[in-house]
Amino acid sequence: MQNFDVVVVGAGAAGLFCAGIAGQRGLKVLVLDHSEKVAEKIRISGGGRANFTNRDIDVRQPHKHFVGENPNFCRSALSRYTPADFIALVQKHGIPFHEKHKGQLFCDRSAGDLIEMLLAECAAGGVQRWQPCGVKTLRATAEGGYELDTDQDVVQARQVVIATGGLSIPAIGATDFGYRVAKQFGLRTVEPRPGLVPLTFDGAGWAPYAGLAGLALPVVIETGNTTSPHAPPLRGLQPPEGASSALGRPGGRKKERIAFHEDLLFTHRGLSGPAVLQISSHWQPGTPIRINLAPEVDLPAALADAKQRSRKLLANELAQWVPSRLAEAWAAQDKEWQRPVAECSDKALARLAERLAHWELLPTGTEGYKKAEVTLGGVDTRELSQQTMESKQPGLYFIGEVVDVTGWLGGYNFQWAWASAHACATSL
Ligand SMILES: Cc1cc2nc3c(=O)[nH]c(=O)nc-3n(C[C@H](O)[C@H](O)[C@H](O)COP(=O)(O)OP(=O)(O)OC[C@H]3O[C@@H](n4cnc5c(N)ncnc54)[C@H](O)[C@@H]3O)c2cc1C
């Protein structure tokens, strides 16, 4: 039997960061993980370069970039440990990084730099790390602490931090451990589901687009239950110049419409790319999504103008504003659209412009946890202190993705991992 002040379960982003800070505060810390490799999700993140934070987080309005039953829950942690704090740490470790766009920061070399940094912080705090080492049982002791039967030894600790993440990418070690622990202690959870995930479309309706795999283009995508182009405008439709392209209001509120101006990617089974990943976290199964395939052009006016001056086929004209393969796939759907633009009726052109600007689709599903970057839902924030991440079960903490706080694409999820870990570690 070994004794620790704190046992952290999960050596991922949140767990390692929390362990390092707690250790440096003088606590005797053990971090354990059932995986052989440490922080695999960091390693594969951001295309191998880890989009480790975002400069554009508005800590006073976290609902702008975070989804969950109560997105404001994360305000306290995010405002006490900001992107600037994490950037300072990255700089202290001499890790080169760059900004891509929309405030997203990436490592120049590889995400491995970040893992080395977290391990160095743990070493500076004298943190012990056991890997691979699973937890068979966790129980509260009569003395007010916890006892864990692990694959290596029985350990006792005054406090336990659950940092086991969500269900995404089971192949690299994701499990439902955190949710099971919550249930064991009578803490509520919000039903988990895949987020930041490609959407799939089955059946004959998808056939015209099945050959477009690999094609990418900028679009405006929105979710919400309206099918009318005359629906009320999206709230906050005009994003500030150069700021995040989010056009709508927060997730977690099912009736609210939300839109993103991002790139769309056609895949073999459906749609992906940043636009679809973002909308997937707000999409409710059984509801449609709508896409403006040519958001940067006034299509009715452009087509009317083309009709006056061009002899080209409609598909060739259209290819000025959308990729030519897409233009051809659309024109092929209607005989009226397979003519020279000058011979198309005004009605046919108007119909095409309308359909391209309001392409409505009913996704049949998602690519699931195998492809999802995050897991929506998790430990219900009503069970946790927003200052410390301690649950209503004294001495038991939950941090990172296991909590019902999910960030948008763009470094927000890592910032939540750092901030929640910091809030927890400084209160242990
Ligand atoms: C492909 C991909 C790319 C991503 N890119 C980005 C990005 O660029 N920017 C961004 O902000 N976010 C990104 N994310 C999301 C981000 O990686 C996660 O939100 C973040 O890692 C969550 O941190 P965490 O510590 O809570 O969980 P994790 O990092 O998932 O760590 C959880 C740890 O717990 C361990 N564990 C699980 N179950 C058990 C158990 N039963 N016993 C012991 N240990 C267990 C796991 O092995 C793992 O090491 C990406 C995710 C994916 C899948």
Written overview of the protein:
- By secondary structure, the protein is of the alpha+beta class.
- The model is unreliable at 227-254 (pLDDT under 50).
- The chain has helices spanning 13-24, 40-44, 75-80, 83-92, 112-124, 177-184, 273-280, 299-309, 314-318, 324-331, 346-357, 412-425; strands at residues 2-9, 29-32, 51-54, 66-67, 97-99, 104-107, 128-130, 135-140, 146-150, 154-162, 189-195, 199-200, 216-223, 258-266, 270-272, 289-292, 359-361, 365-366, 374-379, 396-398, 406-407.
- 48% of the residues are buried.
- Strands 1, 2, 7, 8, 9, 10 and 20 form a 7-stranded mixed β-sheet that branches. It has a 7-stranded antiparallel β-sheet with strand order 17-16-13-14-15-12-18. A 3-stranded antiparallel β-sheet has the order 3-6-5.
- The chain folds into 2 domains: 2-194 and 372-425, FAD/NAD(P)-binding domain; 199-366, Elongation Factor Tu (Ef-tu), domain 3 (Beta Barrel).
- The site of flavin-adenine dinucleotide (FAD) has 38 residues, from helix 1, helix 2 and helix 12.
What CATH first level of the largest domain would be assigned?
Answer: Alpha Beta
Low-pLDDT sequence parts: 227-254
Helix content: 25-40%
Computed structural class: alpha+beta
Just name the CATH architecture of the largest domain.
Answer: 3-Layer(bba) Sandwich
Going by CATH, the homologous superfamily of the largest domain would be FAD/NAD(P)-binding domain
**Which overall shape is indicated by the principal axes computed on the Cα atoms?**
elongated
CATH topology of the largest domain: FAD/NAD(P)-binding domain
Rg value? 24 Å
Task: Domain count, please report it.
Answer: 2
Per DSSP, the total helix count is 12
The overall strand count is 21
Ligand names: flavin-adenine dinucleotide
Q: Quick one: biggest sheet? A: 7 strands, mixed
Average pLDDT score: 92
What share of the residues does DSSP label as strand, in percent? 15-25%
Beginning-to-end CA distance, first to last residue: 22 Å
